[in-house]
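Box 3.1 — From sequence to structure: DNA mismatch repair protein MutL
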Amino acid sequence: MTDIIHLLPDAVANQIAAGEVVQRPASAVKELLENSIDAGADKIQLVVKDAGKALIQIIDNGCGMSVTDARMCFERHATSKVKKAEDLFAIRTMGFRGEAMASIAAIAQVEMKTRRHEDEIGTCISIEGAQVTNQEPVATSPGTQISIKNLFFNTPARRNFLKSNPVEMRHILDEFQRVALAHPGVFFSLHHDGTEIFNLPKGNLKQRIVHLFGNNYNERLVPVEEETTIINLKGYIGKPAFAKKTRGEQFFFVNNRFIKDPYLNHAVSSAFEELLPDDSYPLYVLFIEIDPSKIDVNVHPTKTEIKYLDEKSIYAIMKSAVKRSIGRYNIAPTLDFDQETGFSNMITHKAVEDIIPPSINFNPDFNPFASDSSSTSGYATSSRNYEAKPSAKNWGSLYEITEQPIVAQTSIYADETVLETKQKQYMQLHNRYIVSQIKSGLMVIDQQMAHERILYERFLVHLDDRKGASQQSLFPQTITLNAHDFELAKSLLDDIKSLGFDVREFGKNTLVVEGVPVDLGSSNINETQLFEQLIEGFKNSQQELKLSKRDSLARSLAKNSAIKAGTSLGQEEMNTLIDELFACKTPNFSVSGKPIIQTITLAELDKKFEK
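Predicted structure (token representation):
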């Protein structure tokens, strides 16, 4: 029997490694940006076409490479950052595995131009499918320029698994933002299909956050800083008032390397305990500086997971530092027990003998059954005298029963309850619930969830027939989004218009809203806030529930535009709401799957009263 174990060819081995390292265009962007940072560049330009599928180009002014290094960088496990095993526990660079360039070259057409600052001429190398097709001297500026074309051209199965351009572009933006946040002292720019998305000048961390996410973030940030013998912590957290429904703006960096760590995330979340509802997440950009020998970054090819030597201590430091910043900058509500300002203006600085107590007089002869107009009030002050005498007229009207017409009843509610649909009188309870009497007892309806269900089904119809009516705004509103949300909004623009929004692009990361859906009513609507909530709710539905695009949009708009608990409704409004609810396909359950209607039978009431 012949031997069956053999070494894989380099081309096959590189493609296997590429499956781990380069999962999508964003993976290649991450590796190339980190290489530019490790090369000492302070100016990095990223150019992307067709969401990275056609072209990814990185231009930096780093140290550059010699002719030999330029050729060696495409070999597997070739790196300048690790020389022996002990170096793995003293890593300060972004990359160290030596697999990225070989993996990218195995599945794309790569051209690299590089020159050291001390050299007069550089080197140009072309590689296609791990095979060097050209190498020659070239005149180029100091630094390195790498162009990756036709990613996954020789692995069509992997290319077919790529998502749409807007989705892939959002992943590229995520990776770009992470590297840019970690290095605010480096100039970054990003161009996509000829359009400039970012132009980030050198600055401090706060300036970089504002440049990335928008000017309105300037007032949202609270500094965090703590120095201990275990770690040094610095960065910013967001004020609770600006928390969002998704985790998108939460960043941890360990020695300037972006990481994902649910354990440390819990430390920050617990510091915001009782300041945020359960479904809201605060903004934070936090940097941990720690001795590399006390962590292990060689856990996963993406290098976003880290193991710590003293995880519990880091958790405690993180939580206490965030709580201290919340208290130090008066984010949390406080009480001044020395003086309660709410009562300070009610204190009278008069002598006791000058204070005249109020006096109250009343009419002892008041008769509530008297018909005389002079006896309409039973309360008197010292300035009024009443001479009205009690009257016995009309006393019998107290015991008269108003005759009510018998109304035809139609069974429109499932199970055994019957709802009177004509001239039905409803009562609102605590401005949250609508209560009605039915044959078997009481019916209680949650007004907010009922309205959400009505709007949700209506918006689904608009998305299907593309005929959502729009109510034009008196003054169009300009909305500036961060780059990630703007790309998402562009991909959803047709469906958003189907819902009834009149919206169009207006320059860089900016939209103009000229109308909102008629279904939202004629009340004063903040178009900017509503649109931002629509995008945020869509992201939340996509992440948590994995719903379809249209279902997520309809759900998000319904939840954000429905009447809220605490809204007072008139009788006609309650009648309309109930009629529209029972006209829905699924009137019994909310958009979230919770019951909208609850019934309390007479038997249950009797049991409460121990009858």
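Summary of the box: Confidence is low (pLDDT under 50) at residues 336-347, 373-389, 395-422.
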